[in-house]
Write a structure and sequence with these properties.
The termini are close together. Helix 6 (about 110-120) packs across helix 7 and helix 7 (about 150-160) runs parallel beside helix 8 (about 180-190). The chain has one domain (about 5-245): Aldolase class I (TIM Barrel, Alpha-Beta Barrel). By secondary structure, the chain is of the alpha/beta class. The protein is about 40% helix and about 30% strand. The protein has an 8-stranded parallel beta barrel with strand order 1-4-5-6-7-10-11-12, surrounded by 8 helices.
Length: about 250
């Protein structure tokens, strides 16, 4: 069954959404712990979190760590987190406080071999996030563009043992313009990775579209601004996935 990942992006202790990764174009949505609890109440089992402070600076804050710890302890959600996770110690820290899985972004793009070592050590407790702007990999909180194509990076990471990735189309992120299903399917086909779709998801139609392409390699979908702005009802999405699985 396609897995749903409501998303909470953390910046300076608040739940926020950025437009196309622009830190100066943010909307604040308040208490992330309350938001996580609401998602759990609506039927979510998993949660995707991003530490935007660490993504930009490479250093996590005690404030962020405390929020994530509370969400893990108080909601019972299965949490995966990305943003600024660039060392073995970072992975060990997050797993140690109860996070289910770490998403490697910048380090996977800049040092795929090291990311492969982490995959060998932690197995499915780590995955990779491939963020693309115009098909090219972006890193460091999307503030830098690397000189390689997302498809090539995905294929290399598959060779290092990864089986799944989070794929974000930056141009669509936070825009409610619809998920880029075509690019996600192409990435899955070219790399052999299962793909969790992120960026631009607007409504139940997008969720069902991801579900309809499960056999083409799409394994999940991240739900961000659509939930916060009310263009997608999480309870309805959960119910739709359960019905499709019957």
């Amino acid at each position: 069954m396609t897995r749903l990942y409501p998303a909470i992006d953390l910046l300076q202790g608040q739940a926020v959404r950025l437009r196309q990764g622009d830190y100066d174009a943010r909307t604040v949505y308040g208490d992330p712990v309350q938001l996580a609890a609401a998602y759990r109440e609506a039927g979510a089992t998993h949660l995707h979190m991003v530490d935007l402070d660490a993504a930009r600076t490479g250093s996590r804050s005690p404030q962020t760590s405390g929020i994530v710890s509370r969400i893990v302890a108080e909601t019972g959600l299965t949490v995966q987190i990305g943003g600024g996770i660039r060392t073995r110690g970072d992975v060990q820290y997050w797993l140690g406080i109860g996070v289910w899985r770490c998403v490697l972004g910048t380090v996977a793009a800049r040092d795929p071999r090291f990311a492969g070592e982490l995959c060998g050590e932690f197995g499915e407790r780590v995955t990779v996030g491939i963020d693309a702007r115009g098909g090219m990999v972006a890193t460091q909180g999307w503030t830098k563009t690397e000189g390689r194509e997302a498809v090539d990076l995905a294929a290399e990471l598959r060779g290092y043992g990864y089986t799944e990735c989070v794929y974000t189309d930056i141009a669509r992120d936070g825009m409610l313009s619809g998920a880029n299903i075509e690019s996600a399917v192409a990435l899955a086909a070219a790399s052999g990775l299962a793909v969790i779709v992120s960026g631009g998801v607007k409504d139940l139609g997008d969720v069902r579209s991801v579900r309809d392409h499960e056999l083409q390699g799409l394994s999940g979908v991240i739900l961000g601004k659509s939930l916060l702005e009310g263009t997608l009802d999480l309870h309805a999405a959960v119910r739709a996935m359960q019905e499709d699985a019957r």
